[in-house]
Amino acid sequence: MERKVSTDGTVLAFASYKPKAGKEQALLELVKRHLPILRDLQLATDRNNYIARSEDGTIIEVFEWTSTGAIGAAHEHPAVADIWEKMTLVADFIPMNNLQEGQSPFPGFAIIN
């Protein structure tokens, strides 16, 4: 699916990771390492992020890309590709509309961090 972002500034990202059976802790450890990697590469801002959990156990990561170009650059960087590959071993990346909360105009999630 093509991403359409109508901004030349920063971009707010919502990522949804459904842990595979027995892999939630491993996923959380990877999610906590994810943003520092993006920040070290100057692909994500230093603004506060959120890690949350949906009712079905899906982990939601909310952070800010430095630009639309940073999104594409992340897909080409080996360090980012490495952590994303590790994440795919412990979770499925799912669209937020697959979550029960995604059916609501005002979804709420349990905050982890």
Rg: 14 Å
Total strands: 5
| Helix and strand sequence | EHEEHHEE
Detail the poorly predicted runs: none
**3D shape:** globular
What structural category characterises the helix and strand content? alpha+beta
Described by strand count, sense and barrel closure, the largest sheet is:
5 strands, antiparallel
CATH topology: Alpha-Beta Plaits
Q: Supply the number of structural domains.
A: 1
CATH classification class: Alpha Beta
Q: In which range does the helix fraction lie?
A: 25-40%
Instruction: Name the beta content range.
Output: 15-25%
Instruction: Please identify, by name, the CATH architecture.
Output: 2-Layer Sandwich
Note the total helix count.
3
In whole angstroms, the N-to-C terminal distance is 30 Å
Query: Mean of residue pLDDT?
Result: 94
Protein name: ABM domain-containing protein
Describe the 3D structure.
The chain has 113 residues and is of the alpha+beta class. The chain has a single domain (25-111), classed as Alpha-Beta Plaits (2-Layer Sandwich). 33% of the residues lie in helices and 22% in strands. It has helices spanning 24-40, 68-74, 78-90; strands spanning 11-19, 50-53, 59-65, 91-93, 110-111. The chain is globular, with a radius of gyration of 14 Å. The mean pLDDT is 94.
Question: Which descriptors apply to this entry?
Answer:
five-stranded antiparallel beta sheet, alpha+beta, Alpha-Beta Plaits, 113 residues, single chain
